[in-house]
Specification:
Length: 180
């Protein structure tokens, strides 16, 4: 009996190391962008990994390990915002420092601040598609939506983001002095 528990614990550790550990950095970047704060992203990441390790046995489809982990992290983020309502209102802390996909640092900061003007759900779907380049099917798995619903939500989120960018003067190069 004791040997069986030991084997199960070893299998859980091996499964975690094989399927979850390679995804930690990617998840951390996503959480930084989603949370708007490096510190809160760290907290949520830690809680997510603890929960994932404790429930690794429930991961049935190993090819969807990141979607499974992302769902846990997303739920932990929602729980965090519920417990810390002041942080739910996105701070001006630019959390995209680790992501080099936008090129110039100033442009990256401007876009990050504009993204913080979106509702969390809009920001999340834009980040998943446009920054991390996930397919509609992968996003559907992560957010537990249909593929067509991902397309609709992404289109609407992009429209709202374009509106924010237009209102800020971003396209004309007339960025608000507060943006910098």
């Amino acid at each position: 009996m004791k040997q069986k528990r030991l084997n199960t614990a070893m299998n859980a550790k091996e499964k975690f190391n094989e399927l979850i550990t390679p995804n930690i950095n990617r998840l951390h970047k996503m959480l930084c962008a989603y949370m708007g704060s490096f510190e809160s992203a760290q907290d949520v990441l830690q809680e997510s990994l603890i929960k994932a390790y404790g429930h690794i046995h429930s991961l049935q489809e190993t090819e969807k390990a990141y979607a499974w982990l992302y769902t846990i992290a997303r739920n932990e983020a929602k729980r965090y915002f519920f417990k810390h309502p002041k942080e739910s209102e996105m701070t001006e802390n630019v959390a995209l420092k680790a992501d080099e996909s936008f090129g110039r640092a100033e442009q990256k900061q401007d876009i990050a601040k504009l993204l913080l003007g979106l509702e969390r759900e809009d920001r999340e779907i834009i980040i998943l598609k446009d920054m991390f380049d996930y397919s509609y099917a992968e996003i559907a798995d992560m957010l537990e939506l249909s593929v067509s619903n991902v397309g609709v939500r992404l289109s609407r989120a992009r429209d709202r983001f374009r509106k924010i960018m237009n209102e800020s003067g971003y396209w004309e190069g007339e960025r608000d002095s507060e943006m910098r």
